[in-house]
Structures are given as C-alpha cells and as structure tokens.
Recover the amino acids of this structure.
C-alpha cells in the first residue's frame, strides 16, 4: 500500500525514470545517414585549421633577423645573398630571392619580379583555406538535407501505421530525430567560418609585413640613387645561378660651357686611364692659354 501510494503521488518521477540518458553516439545514430559526411567534414576542417596554424607562425613565414641577415649578405655580394635566401627557405626568402636575381636591371623589372614571387607565396599561404570556406558553406546544407530526409521518413512512418491516428508522439519523435542533423550542420559551420576568417586575418597581417620589407629592399638597393654600399659592379644573378659581372655605366663627359660660372672645380676626362682629375676654372683657362702659346 505504501509503495502504491508513493507511485501514485509522483507519476512524473516514474516517467522520468523510464527516460534513458542520451549519449553523443545515440544522437549521431539517430541523426541518420547525413551525420556521416558531417562528421567527416568536421574532421577535415579541424585538420586544416591546425595545419594552417602551425604553418602560418611568424617564425616560419618571416624568420627573426632575416632582413638584417640578407642585407648584410647583399652588401658583400649578390652571390652570398642568393645562397642566404636559398638556405633560409621561408616564403619571405623566396620573395627576396626573386628581387636579388634582378638587381642591376631596371627598377620596374625588380619590382615586377618581387610582385610575381609575392603572389605565388600568398597562394601557398592560403593553401587549403578554400576547403575550409567550402565546409563552412556546405555544412548547414547537409544538415538541412538530413532534416528533410528525416521528416520524410517520419511522415511515411505515420502514414503507413494503421493505429497511428491520434498518436502525436510518433510524429514528434520522428521530427526531433530529424532536427539533429540541422543542429550538427550548424555546429560545424559556425566554427569553420570563424576559423576561416581567423586564418585569413593572419595571412593578411603577414603579407602586409612582407610587403613593407619588399618596399624597403627596393628603396635601398634597386631605386635610382640607392645606397652605393652594396657592390661596386652591377652583379646580375640569372635564374640558372650564373653570376654576370657588368661594369658600372660610364660617367658622361662634362663640357666647360655646361659648367656654372661659380663652380669651384670641374671634372675633366683623363683619357683611357679611366680616372678623373679635378681642376678649377682658373687652372683650366691657364692650361688653354699655354696650349695656344705653344701652338703659336
């Protein structure tokens, strides 16, 4: 009598005792066949995110001290700078290598070479990122498709059951199981979209740093009037690694008529010796007078 009284007094507790605890595996199993591609896509997205995080560390893309190292090597010779970039192997080293091989040529060619190399390296940095974007876009659609298939199955079960009239729990159970795939698709799409934008922002920041380093390189070594402390000759390193040493462009001869009247000194050509002698305007006039007197 006491047991019956307690059971009748608390029917909700008795109903709760019959409810089985749902595990994650149970939800996956009830989600239907579309849970398989959703789980597979989630594993791929996680692998891409971790791989990009490891490869896009700044110490990997732009090693510490690289700019100072390549600048010091370039001031010795282009060959040392090329070897330095090849041994480094980082994306920024590949960009600098393309520019160093064009040094001694027109500035536009150097900039174009750096730009082309930069575009290639950015494509490598964005590797697998499109896959992450596709997963973020397709995951909700896969979840919706799973829900539609589950709804079709639920209504078909109710329609084929002869004693289902008035039993809403049959339809409710089918609908709740069908909604699992929609929730799973959204649970995959939201983190995947956030991961995509996080990786994209990191790539943009790295590209901005490499772009500024490239600008500094061009201004120091390739622009007209750049610092002369690099090399005395114009050294061009071809794509096959051969170094071509080209002499500097000869200086134009300066005529006396083009010299300002108040110029303190003038540089005249010393003949085939390749050396220049600095004389004042008065000394040049005296030399001409002596030449005229000797001719007379």
């Amino acid at each position: 009598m006491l047991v019956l009284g307690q059971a009748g007094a608390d029917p909700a507790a008795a109903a709760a005792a019959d409810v089985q605890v749902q595990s994650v595996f149970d939800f996956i199993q009830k989600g239907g066949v579309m849970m398989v591609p959703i789980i597979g896509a989630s594993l791929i997205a996680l692998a891409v995110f971790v791989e990009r995080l490891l490869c896009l560390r700044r110490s990997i893309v732009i090693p510490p001290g690289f700019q100072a190292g390549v600048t010091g090597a370039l001031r010795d010779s282009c060959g040392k700078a090329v070897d330095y970039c090849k041994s480094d192997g980082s994306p920024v080293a590949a960009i600098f290598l393309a520019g160093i091989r064009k040094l001694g040529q027109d500035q536009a060619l150097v900039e174009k070479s750096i730009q082309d190399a930069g575009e290639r390296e950015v494509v490598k940095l964005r590797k697998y990122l499109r896959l992450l974007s596709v997963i973020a876009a397709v995951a909700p659609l896969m979840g919706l498709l799973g829900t539609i298939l589950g709804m079709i199955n639920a209504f078909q079960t109710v329609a084929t059951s002869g004693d289902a009239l008035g039993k809403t729990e049959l339809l409710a159970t089918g609908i709740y199981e069908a909604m699992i795939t929609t929730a799973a698709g959204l649970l995959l799409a939201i983190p995947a979209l956030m991961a995509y934008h996080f990786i994209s922002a990191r790539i943009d920041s790295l590209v901005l740093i490499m772009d500024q380093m490239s600008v500094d390189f061009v201004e120091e070594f390739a622009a007209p009037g750049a610092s002369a402390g690099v090399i005395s000759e114009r050294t061009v390193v071809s794509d096959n690694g051969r170094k071509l040493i080209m002499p500097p462009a000869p200086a134009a001869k300066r005529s006396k008529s083009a010299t300002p009247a108040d110029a303190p000194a003038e540089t005249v050509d010393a003949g085939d010796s390749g050396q220049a002698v600095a004389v004042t305007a008065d000394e040049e006039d005296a030399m001409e007078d002596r030449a005229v007197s000797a001719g007379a």
Summary: The chain is about 70% helix and 5% strand. Residues 147 and 179 are 5 Å apart (CA to CA). The two ends are 153 Å apart (CA to CA). Residues 24-228+235-248 form one domain.
